[in-house]
Amino acid sequence: KALKALDTDGSGEIDVEEWEQAIQRGLSKRLAQLAAERERRERAAAKADAEFSAEFLSMARKCFDLIDKDGSGTLEKPEIVQAVRADKEVINFLTNCGNKNLQYLLVPSRLDAALNAMDTDRDGHIDADEWEECIEIALN
Question: Quick one: which of 107, 92, 87, 101 has its CA closest to 59?
Fold first, then answer.
């Protein structure tokens, strides 16, 4: 049966051309399988990245809200100082977020520089948009 599939001209023998065609068909099939598997993995990775990004952004928003004790929608230096000294959730998020500007909030000597880098409109405080912009930079 296998020989019949390889003997495309029905001569009863498999010549070099038929052999090479069979090899080519086998390789093409395997390459297609590998490409399909690669695409599946890429889709799964993209989905995982999107899920991680959404979860990370959600945690970042929660962290912002944890620091924003007065509910003003902006972060002032005293709020940040208090949070990075005493709030374990805030400290844990900032420690593990992967963004140096956010992590600098944990370093008293670098706090002013971190706030300046995050305060893109230079109004003296960090609003939710500036915070999220910094988070999105961390995700890229």
Answer: 92
The model's pTM: 0.57
Residue 62 pLDDT = 84
Tokens describing residue 127: 């609003």
Which distant-in-sequence residues (6+ apart) come within 8 Å of 109 by Cβ? Answer: none
Helices (H), the chain: 2-6, 16-67, 77-86, 88-96, 100-103, 111-118, 128-139
Q: Is pLDDT of 28 > 90?
A: yes
Exposure class string for 82-94: b at 16+ Cβ within 10 A, else e: ebbeebeebbebb
Task: Give me 38's structure tokens.
Answer: 């690669």
